[in-house]
C-alpha cells in the first residue's frame, strides 16, 4: 500500500496524473481490503493468545501431567473448569476420555459427576455423546458392567506407557532423534511400535502396514518417513 501512495503531485505530468486516476479505484479497493485484513488479524490474534494459548499450556503441562499420574478417584481441575465455563464440548469430552484412559478407568462416582456436569453445561445431546463414547470403550468405568461395557478389552495405558516409554523425561525440542520432542515429552504409541519394528528389522512381523486403526497423525507420518520401512 505504501508503494501505491508514493507519488509527487508537484512533479507529476498530465500523463502521469491520467495513469494515477485510472489506478485510483484499485488503490481504494486495496485500502479497503487492507482494513478488513487488519480487522481479521486482530480477531485471530485475540483467539490465538486468549484461547489457543490456554490449550497449548494444558497440552504441554497439565495434559502431560494427566497422562503421567492420572487418578480415577477424583475429577481433574482443568477438565472441571473446561466444562463449567462452557468451552467446546468436543474438547471437554476428549479430556474426559484421556482422563479415563490414563487412569485405567474412572470410578463410578467420578464418571457420574462428569455426566452431571456435561448435562448441566451442554445439555442432553452432549450427554448422549458421552454415553456413546462409553459404549465404544473410549470412556471406561472402572469395575463397570452391563450394557455400557465395550465388547473388547480396554487399552492398558499405564502399562503401555512404561513398556513403550511414551512419556520421556528430560526431552529436548532441539533434539529431533526422539519423536517425543514434537509433543514436549510425549511420543505416540504408533510411532513407538514402528520404532520397535525398525530396531528388530521387522523380525516376527508378518507384514508392514502403512495404516493404523483409528488413523495416524501427520506428525507420526513425518517421523515414520525417517525410518527404513
From TrEMBL:
It holds the Pfam family Sec1. InterPro entries: Sec1-like (IPR001619), Sec1-like_dom2 (IPR027482), Sec1-like_sf (IPR036045), VPS33_dom3b (IPR043155). SUPFAM superfamilies: Sec1/munc18-like (SM) proteins. GO terms for biological process: vesicle-mediated transport. Belongs to the STXBP/unc-18/SEC1 family. This is Uncharacterized protein. It comes from Strongylus vulgaris (Blood worm).
Amino acid at each position: 500500500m505504501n508503494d501505491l501512495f508514493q507519488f509527487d503531485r508537484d512533479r507529476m505530468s498530465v500523463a502521469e496524473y491520467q495513469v494515477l486516476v485510472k489506478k485510483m479505484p484499485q488503490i481504494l479497493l486495496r485500502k479497503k481490503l487492507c482494513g478488513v485484513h487488519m480487522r481479521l488479524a486482530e480477531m485471530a490474534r485475540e483467539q490465538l493468545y486468549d484461547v489457543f494459548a490456554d490449550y497449548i499450556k494444558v497440552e504441554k503441562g497439565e495434559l502431560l501431567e494427566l497422562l503421567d499420574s492420572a487418578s480415577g478417584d477424583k475429577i481433574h481441575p482443568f477438565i472441571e473448569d473446561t466444562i463449567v465455563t462452557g468451552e467446546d464440548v468436543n474438547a471437554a469430552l476428549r479430556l474426559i476420555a484421556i482422563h479415563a484412559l490414563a487412569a485405567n478407568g474412572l470410578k463410578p462416582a467420578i464418571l457420574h459427576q462428569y455426566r452431571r456436569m456435561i448435562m448441566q453445561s451442554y445439555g442432553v445431546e452432549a450427554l448422549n455423546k458421552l454415553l456413546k463414547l462409553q459404549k465404544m470403550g473410549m470412556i471406561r468405568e472402572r469395575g463397570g458392567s452391563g450394557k455400557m461395557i465395550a465388547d473388547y478389552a480396554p487399552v492398558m495405558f499405564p502399562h503401555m506407557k512404561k513398556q513403550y516409554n511414551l512419556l520421556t523425561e528430560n526431552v529436548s525440542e532441539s533434539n529431533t532423534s526422539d519423536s517425543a520432542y514434537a509433543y514436549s515429552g510425549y511420543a505416540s504409541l504408533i510411532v513407538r511400535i514402528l520404532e520397535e519394528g525398525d530396531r528388530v528389522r521387522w523380525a516376527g512381523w508378518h507384514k508392514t502396514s502403512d495404516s493404523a486403526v483409528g488413523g495416524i497423525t501427520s506428525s507420526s507420518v513425518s517421523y515414520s518417513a525417517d525410518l527404513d520401512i
